[in-house]
Write a structure and sequence with these properties.
Length: 440
């Protein structure tokens, strides 16, 4: 790497980062790029942000730049805004007194970059790079990158004791980069794994998300299982129950759906999954997306079994297709087309052997896959707001004040349109409403 070779970073960001380093060094301080950005450049991975470290103390940094945000001044970190980019600039520091396994109670500024690098988690994250590309790499980080090895700086047990999250970072890096974990690092992790109990579930989830989103999540899952780390999280992550064969196609799935596959392969009900997703601090949007997916799966199998079971004896081929189609449409109305298409994506990755359903149910579930595929492409009306009639129009036409009847009527009309019994036309919808009313 030479001066102009931030090959994997946004060039403008790299240029402004260099300006910040230059300003600091011109004022007589030392300054380097450090951590993830240097590691990712050496690995040839895209870089999204650049952290800097300097011998200058926060007040000195503030004095040198017009736009500085004091983001974490007591820990030596300020954010320098340069050319529209934000750079976290942290004073060389040591940390001590990790009484809670996650945060240092004492931070001391130091003058030697090596001392700063010594407090960092892994050798590959403890490489600093100066303005013209010269590297400070006292722990052999580059050699470990070449050897595809995650190795702690110094004694692994100490690094993991300081911050329990580092154990998940270790597995995440090994999984995402397809690296091995150095023997002593692995041993230290096993010894310190109970420390994970102190880590907030939100931080744990973020690490698991990064791991799952990577190119080889099964590798990470295998390591999580083997290390026993999953048994040590604050909130249970019951992935040991996963049926491994169900996960084979996981990389084909979009990131959030990978969580859905995990939940499904653990055979969790939507109610239990809902509780877990809340405790794992997922946003409501993601949680509902996944819960709907599981509900879809359960309801689909349930309604198929019931209808198939009502109309046929086991293993018979005759089934009431129309009753099934109607029950699936009800499901589509309740859970939405997005759920149908999510479920379809997931279903397509599952090996038939996973499901363990009687073949006569399996066959009909497979048929819903075809249907779901059609529904997601066609303009099937499944939302009340897509009906060609409004509540107001109904109230006027019926000459009746609004009330619970109105919602029920709209639902009924939607069901009829979605099933293809009547067209979605205002006049027909009004007639149908009148017919229903008079027959009540
Ligand atoms: N628990 C942690 C977290 C971070 N670091 C150090 O702080 C740097 C920056 O951390 P962060 O931005 O959280 O992660 P990155 O290593 O940059 O990697 P990623 O962005 O992929 O999470 C790391 O490289 C590492 O040197 C550490 O020692 N211990």
């Amino acid at each position: 790497m030479n001066t102009n070779t931030w090959q994997y970073a946004d060039q403008e960001m790299a240029l402004h980062g260099r300006e910040v380093i230059h300003t600091l060094t011109a004022a007589g301080h030392e300054a380097y790029w450090v951590g993830g950005c240097v590691r990712d450049e050496l690995l040839g991975r895209a870089i999204h942000d650049m952290d800097l470290t300097t011998s200058a103390e926060p007040e000195q940094v503030i004095a040198l730049f017009p736009h500085v945000i004091p983001t974490g001044i007591q820990h030596g970190t300020v954010t320098v805004m340069q050319g529209g980019h934000a750079f976290e600039v942290t004073t060389f520091r040591t940390e001590s007194g990790y009484a809670d396994h996650r945060r240092p109670t004492e931070v001391a500024f130091v003058k030697d970059i090596r001392e700063d690098l010594m407090r960092r988690d892994f050798t590959m994250n403890a490489i600093a790079m100066a303005e013209h590309g010269e590297r400070v790499d006292p722990f052999g980080g580059e050699a470990d990158l070449r050897a595809a090895l995650v190795r702690c700086v110094g004694r692994a047990e100490e690094r993991f004791e300081e911050d329990g999250l580092r154990m998940l970072r270790c597995i995440r890096f090994a999984s995402v980069f397809r690296f091995r974990v150095a023997f002593n690092t692995w041993k230290g992790m096993i010894r310190r794994r109970e420390g994970l109990r102190y880590i907030a579930m939100e931080r744990v989830r973020v690490e698991l998300e990064k791991m799952l989103a990577g190119p080889d999540p099964l590798r990470g899952l295998e390591m999580l299982g083997r290390s026993g780390l999953l048994g040590c999280t604050k909130v249970p992550v019951p992935w040991e129950q996963c049926e491994a064969q169900a996960l084979k196609g996981i990389v084909q799935l979009q990131e959030e759906l990978r969580w859905g596959l995990l939940l499904m392969s653990c055979r969790l009900t939507s109610v239990v999954a809902d509780e877990l997703l809340r405790a794992w601090t997922f946003s409501n949007a993601v949680r509902l997306r996944l819960v709907h997916l599981l509900e879809w799966e359960t309801e689909l199998i349930y309604s198929t079994s019931v209808i198939a079971g009502d109309s046929v004896t086991e293993e018979s081929d005759i089934i009431n297709d129309e009753a099934l189609r109607r029950s699936w449409i009800r499901l589509l109305i309740r859970l939405g087309k997005d759920t149908a298409s999510d479920w379809l994506d997931l279903y397509n990755t599952l090996p038939a052997s996973f499901r363990g359903l009687p073949p006569w149910v399996e066959k009909h579930v497979a048929k819903t896959a075809e249907m779901a595929s059609l529904w997601t492409k066609q303009a099937v009306v499944v939302r009340i707001k897509d009906l060609n009639i409004t509540g107001n129009e109904l109230v006027q036409a019926m000459n009746r004040p609004g009330g619970p009847w109105l919602g029920q009527m709209m639902e009924q009309l939607l069901q009829a349109v979605a099933c293809g019994d009547i067209p979605n036309e205002t006049e027909t919808l009004l007639q149908e409403a009148k017919r229903v009313m008079s027959s009540e």
